[in-house]
Here is the input.
Amino acid sequence: KKCTSPVLPLKLDYFTVQAVNNKPVVSWKPLIETDISRYFIQRSADAIVFENVGFVNPKGVFTVYTYTDNP
Here is the structure.
């Protein structure tokens, strides 16, 4: 499926992806979270078609979020 999700108001302090034990670990810290019910983590092999692989519930601004993918 093509990604057709609308963009929400979000400002990030940082966003990183690192390999830890051969698994991608996504980390981010929002400065602004407006009307966000959850963060969906997506994966793509071609940067065109994305699939949801997980989600993280918001806990408030200045929270450092992490998600480890298990491809």
The two ends are 18 Å apart (CA to CA). The beta strands are 10-20, 23-33, 39-43, 51-56, 65-68. The chain has a mean pLDDT of 88. DSSP finds no helices and five strands in the chain.
